[in-house]
Amino acid sequence: MSKINDQAFQKLISFCKSKGFIFPSSEIYGGLAGVYDYGHYGAILKNNIRDSWMRHMIQLRNDVYLLDSAIFMHPTTWVASGHVESFDDPQVECRKCHNRMRADHLLESFGISADKATIEFINTELDKLKEEKKLKCVSCGSSDITPAKKFSLMVKSNFGSPTDALSEENVVYLRPETCGGIYLQYKNTVDSLHPSFPFGIAQVGKAFRNEIAARQFIFRTREFEQMEMQYFLHPDTMKENYENWKVVRMQWYLSNGIPESKLQWYKHERLAHYASEAYDIKYDFNSIGLDEVEGIHARGNWDLSQHSNHSGVDLSYFDSKKNEKFIPHILETSVGLNRLVLMFLDFAYTEEKVGDDERIVLKLPKHLAPIKVAVFPLLKNKPVLVSKALEIFNQLKNDFMCEFDDNGNVGKRYRRQDEIGTPYCVTVDFDTVEKDGAVTVRDRDTMIQERVKISDLNSYISNRLK
Ligand code: GAP
Hints:
The chain is globular, with a radius of gyration of 26 Å. The longest helix has 20 residues, at 40-59. A hairpin with a 2-residue loop joins strand 17 and strand 18 (357-362). It is built from 15 helices and 23 strands. It has helices at 6-18, 40-59, 76-80, 83-86, 103-108, 119-131, 179-184, 186-193, 238-255, 302-311, 337-348, 383-396, 410-419, 430-436, 457-465, and strands at 22-24, 36-38, 64-66, 88-93, 100-102, 149-152, 155-158, 171-174, 199-208, 223-233, 263-267, 277-285, 289-298, 317-319, 324-326, 329-336, 349-354, 357-362, 373-377, 402-404, 424-428, 438-443, 449-453. Strands 3-9-10-16-13-12-11 form a 7-stranded mixed beta sheet, sandwiched between helices. Strands 20-19-21-22-23 form a 5-stranded mixed beta sheet, with helices on both faces. Strands 5-4-6 form a 3-stranded antiparallel beta sheet. The mean pLDDT is 95. Helix 2 (40-59) packs across helix 11 (337-348). The protein is an alpha+beta fold and 466 residues long. The chain starts with 5 loop residues before the first helix and ends with a helix. Bound molecules: glycyl-adenosine-5'-phosphate. Glycyl-adenosine-5'-phosphate binds next to strand 10, strand 13, strand 16 and helix 11.
């Protein structure tokens, strides 16, 4: 875990709240730790990021199919996948203030790599730090800290009549990752769509984890969205497909305006027992430092074998050309949508000098900006300008997410639109209605203003958003 620039981070968090991007959940009741809500601009930004991922992963390919599976699944799903038994993180607790901490993160703050380490390794390392009197609670500073123990991340619920006693028989889990639904619908997808190998199934949806220390704003939350793709293949082709997908996924970040210098590959040395390769894409956050945004994993045939064994349903594939039957191996790409929202906001948030003035501008890639065009009448109290501006707003809204704004003066409106990242502002003035049938279009980044004919406005903007 890298060092946090707390000042920059707090500024970004309060910006997100005050500008209607992201709110703490249930704030009027004191909040709910590790859960956030998305306001108007945040929700649209999140959808735009999702759409870009869907376009890249599905629309621009002919080998990946979409799935939207339910959050609840048969509870055996999570027994078969190993989650019920061992989806846990090592937890320590401060005996003084009862703050609970991720033991592996605590060790990492001392430069000790503890990713997927055993509980024995973690406790040995913690004991050494205790002897050296270095181990302290991150909240109150006490050195009275418990040994690490495993803490399940599974979030449980119950089906059945509300009067039934909560029992193990009717327990259901809120899925901790979206890929479980993909494995369970692998057979129906093959039987209904008859894809040729290799092929992928992708889905976007909610996942839930009872994180020990949900922290860092929307970086690690208890309810979040994942965008995952499972690519089913013959094991002989894993290596070449893995390399291809690494390129494909890195390209997505670059094509969305994140520079190469902000991105890094991280190779996992300790792997889950079924995995043969695992790389993360890390992004260098201005606020929280270098950290994981996406994982690309070679998962072997563990998933389909396990579900086959537990369900009794044969999930092998028969390749009639090679006359060969095999259980497909899986290559996974998995990214947190909320984490990407944080990445783009962190990247785009800019404070800059404009003459003697300062402005905050969200330099989001234009195609991801929540609002694409804002339309203003130069003066609010001139009905002729207001009605023309409304007419233009109605002309543009069919093609773009637009806003009509007649509050304050034009300068203030520009600042407000800069803050939410709107690429273009259109102003209707007296020349528009009396002379040239054109409007002033102002670019968010260059602040250059151009005169554009109303009849050309839609194509002018759409060409620049591409
Ligand atoms: N199916 C594989 C899987 O779930 P993971 O590394 O646990 O792998 C993949 O999660 C991605 O999901 C992470 O890289 C991260 O972007 C996102 N993610 C995981 N836990 C999260 C959490 N608690 N809050 C927000 N995003 C999370």
